[in-house]
Amino acid sequence: MKLPTFDAEDVKIKGKTLRHDGFLTLSEYQLCHKRFDGQWSPVIEREVITRPLSIGVLLYDPAVDSVVLIEQFRPGALLGNTYPWLLEIVAGISESGETPETVAHREVKEESGCLMKELLPVMTFYPTPGASNEKLKLFCGIVDADSAGTLCGVREEGEDIRVHVIPFKQACKMIEEGSILNAPAIIALQWLALHHQEMKQHA
Question: Is residue 118 among the annotated active site residues?
Fold first, then answer.
């Protein structure tokens, strides 16, 4: 099903105030929008974080049916009273002029040490549309798991990353057990579960 389009007749932005401009940009919007009953909503205030396109890569080695996940500290998980070192897929933010594929190759090398044999597009989605405009473009990268590093990341950027090679079935079980809590990682692994037999043919 194709998404419907919208225009200025459906949403009216009445005002915008910049609240913070750092690594993240936070703006407050005053807006109203058409409701499902055809009427206009009252003016509402919403704070939105704006970010460039994000790229995520699920690394998969079909020869040994294993995925390469990374583990790093996340302050949001700490504030959520959760063990703050989360298992994730490789991910990064695109810089001006970069293609998604360029970002994917750079981040995979920096965060996992792996060299990709293939890079396959999967999907694009909004991780947190209630608070951010961020889109994440997801890929599956075919790799040789033996090429994975142990400790990776760009120290100048404060990255401290541990790399894990995990059998695919075990990774799926870890989702069920609550050991993997990162949403893009869960989405990526569930996608792989749906396309498992097809992806194993890339060995």
Answer: no
Output the six-digit token pair for 126.
Answer: 């909004």
Q: How far is CA 139 from CA 19, 89, 98, 103, in A?
A: 33, 10, 16, 11
Nearest to 123 by CA among 134, 108, 139, 107: 139
Beta bridge partners of 44: 31
For residue range 97-116, what is the model confidence (pLDDT) as tens digits? 899 999 999 999 999 999 89
- pTM (global) more than 0.85: yes
C-beta neighbour count of 94 within 10 angstroms: 19
Domains of the chain in start order, with CATH, are 11-50 (no CATH), 54-200 (3.90.79.10)
DSSP 171-198: HHHHHHHT----HHHHHHHHHHHHTHHH
The answer to whether residue 94 scores a pLDDT higher than 80 is yes
Kindly tell me the sign of the dihedral angle through the C-alpha atoms of 177, 84, 151, 103. Answer: positive
Mean pLDDT value across residues 142-156: 94
Select which of 9, 156, 157, 177 is catalytic.
Answer: 157
